[in-house]
Design brief:
heterodimer, A: about 280 residues, alpha/beta, Rossmann fold, 3 domains, six-stranded mixed beta sheet, 12 helices, B: about 270 residues, mainly alpha, 11 helices, flat
Chain lengths: ~280, ~270
């Protein structure tokens, strides 16, 4: 499983006065097993970019090669590609529609044509992966659940298709701090359990820094930075210029340095920051 | 796909047509539509097409964009054309079993098709060159005299404003839900009518829920800001008649006179 994106460009409403270049000439590669973070502002084009991967949008130019196959050239059904690359949309709870949680989660697998028994097995499995019990919630209407629970069910709905690439577009948007943290932990757990590729889209650096092996920074439709979290945060001045938040711990270190404290290294998590500050002020 | 519908869409621009008072434009569009039904012969239609082309040119809206708006009603045009062609009696030109085409039928069919096309273009030109918000302001202002007869002009205009305002929002929402379900393997395009209708459930249920949620939020937000509508409400951008509007009204009167008098003018020339 690998993803290769080459010179991808997408223009909305091409030829009309309100035409808008959403993404322009984006190229990158993702290896199997990696956890990738895509960071950018609202409207930077990150959602447009990820919607290309399961073939939900067709690019104006460029190609997307998944496992050696260029999906932009593919004719006919894209079901197989959509099985391979599962995309969890922003506010995915708004896509729930079935009478019961179990039926809703089974929607994806049944569309793929799996048997009833297999679908049932997947529903149980997927709900377990998002920390829910099919015996408890399976027959409940999804509309009776809380916001956080609905979102988990929606994520399970994509998980049940057993994708090799799992893409989550701002999965924490609109959740309280606890829900926010829980979802991120969940995503990491899922990534470790299933392997393959996980792509997490966010406007918040702090969300990604602890989990991602690789970070892509999108600004005004262009890929402006690419690298490990450490490499990206070494360029924090540029990030700040782009109005992107850096993790709170990194922000603290930065401020302390400006005030003259000599801190070594590039601590990003709270833990690293604590020991780095301790090293610096140790008598 | 959904984005192809141009009827009721605004095409941003700065032309003289765009800047006209919305009330004048509404009256112009209505008059034009009525005039289309007064026209009875070829020269009249020629004149109506000519006038419309001048207005389109002046508005700066690309012709391609306008023609695209005709696509959804193409079937209606074909249907009326066929019905008119076969159903009207008169001098028979062609016959096959019970089907016959008459000279009169052909004329009426062609005229009706032209009339329909002009009608759609004329009215879509109104919405293409007028911001929805100005359009409803115009309608409210035109309906105001009717408040004497208890016509709720402001409420009607407000309902229209809200409806228009939420068309793009709901389209966007539809697009998003559709994509989300497609990502889960939903197929909206293949299968027979029943299968296709069934495949719409995963789209319609979330869409209705969204629509109700949006409506509720909006009602709450309006109430929180003490909206009560009706009398004594002033506007931030009051609509005003300007010099260009007088010119437009003058040209409109001229247009009506020519359309009405056209048969007699032709009579004089021949």
């Amino acid at each position: 499983m690998s993803i290769k994106v080459e010179n991808l460009t997408h223009i909305y409403a091409e030829g009309l006065p309100h035409q808008q270049v959403a993404i322009e000439d984006i190229s990158f590669e993702i290896e199997d097993g990696s956890f990738v973070g895509i960071i950018g502002h609202t409207g930077s084009g990150k959602s447009t970019l990820v919607q290309h991967l399961p073939g939900l949008l067709k690019p104006n130019s460029g190609s997307i090669i998944i496992d050696g196959e260029d999906i932009t050239k593919k004719e006919g059904s894209l079901t197989e590609i959509r099985r391979k690359t599962g995309l969890v949309f922003q506010y995915p709870e708004y896509q729930l529609f079935e009478e019961t949680v179990a039926k809703d989660v089974a929607f994806g697998p049944l569309n793929l044509g799996v048997s009833m028994e297999e679908a049932e097995r997947r529903v149980g499995e997927a709900l377990k992966q998002v920390g829910m019990d099919v015996k408890l919630v399976g027959d409940v209407s999804p509309f009776e659940l809380s916001g956080g629970e609905k979102r988990r069910v929606a994520i399970a709905g994509v998980m049940a298709m057993e994708p090799e690439v799992l893409i989550l577009d701002e999965p924490t948007a609109g959740l309280d701090p606890k829900g926010h943290h829980d979802i991120l932990e969940l995503v990491e757990k899922i990534h470790k359990a299933k392997g393959g590729i996980t792509i997490l889209v966010s406007h918040n650096m702090a969300d990604i820094v602890n989990y991602a092996d690789k970070v892509l920074v999108i600004e005004k439709g262009k890929l402006v930075m690419e690298g490990t979290p450490l490499e990206i945060f070494k360029r924090e001045d540029e990030l700040i210029k782009m109005d992107l938040d850096i993790p709170p711990a990194a922000e603290l270190i930065r401020t302390l340095r400006e005030r003259g404290l000599k801190i070594k290294g590039n601590p990003m998590s709270v833990k690293e920051a604590v020991s780095a500050i301790y090293e610096a002020i140790k008598p | 796909m959904i984005r192809d519908i141009t009827l009721g869409q605004y095409f941003p621009g700065e032309s003289g047509i765009h800047r006209l008072d919305p009330r004048v434009k509404i009256v112009m569009a209505l008059t034009y539509i009525v005039a289309l039904f007064l026209v009875k012969d070829f020269w009249g239609f020629f004149f109506a097409v000519l006038v419309l082309s001048i207005i389109i040119k002046a508005s700066g809206v690309p012709l391609k964009f306008i023609i695209r708006g005709l696509k959804p009603i193409f079937i209606i045009i074909i249907f009326t054309f066929t019905v008119n062609m076969f159903m009207i009696g008169g001098e028979v030109l062609w016959q096959w079993k019970f089907l016959h085409i008459t000279r009169e039928g052909l004329f009426i069919a062609v005229f009706m098709a032209i009339r329909l096309i002009l009608l759609i273009i004329g009215s879509s030109l109104l919405t293409l060159t007028t911001k929805p918000i100005h359009l409803t302001d115009g309608i409210e202002s035109l309906l105001k005299p009717l408040t004497v007869f208890k016509v709720p002009a402001h409420e009607l205009a407000m309902m229209m404003t809200i409806a228009l305002r939420f068309i793009p929002t709901l389209l966007e929402e539809t697009d998003k839900i559709m994509k989300a379900q497609m990502a889960r393997g939903a197929d909206f395009e293949s299968g027979n009518v029943i299968r296709r209708a069934k495949s719409l459930i995963p789209l319609l249920v979330p869409l209705f829920i969204s629509a109700f949620r949006i409506a509720q939020d909006l009602a709450m937000a309006m109430e929180a800001r003490c909206y009560r509508g009706g009398k004594h409400r002033t506007r931030m951008n009051a609509i005003r008649i300007r010099k260009g509007d007088y010119v437009a009204v003058f040209l409109l009167i001229l247009f009506v006179v020519i359309i009405v008098a056209e048969p007699s003018i032709k009579g004089l020339l021949v």
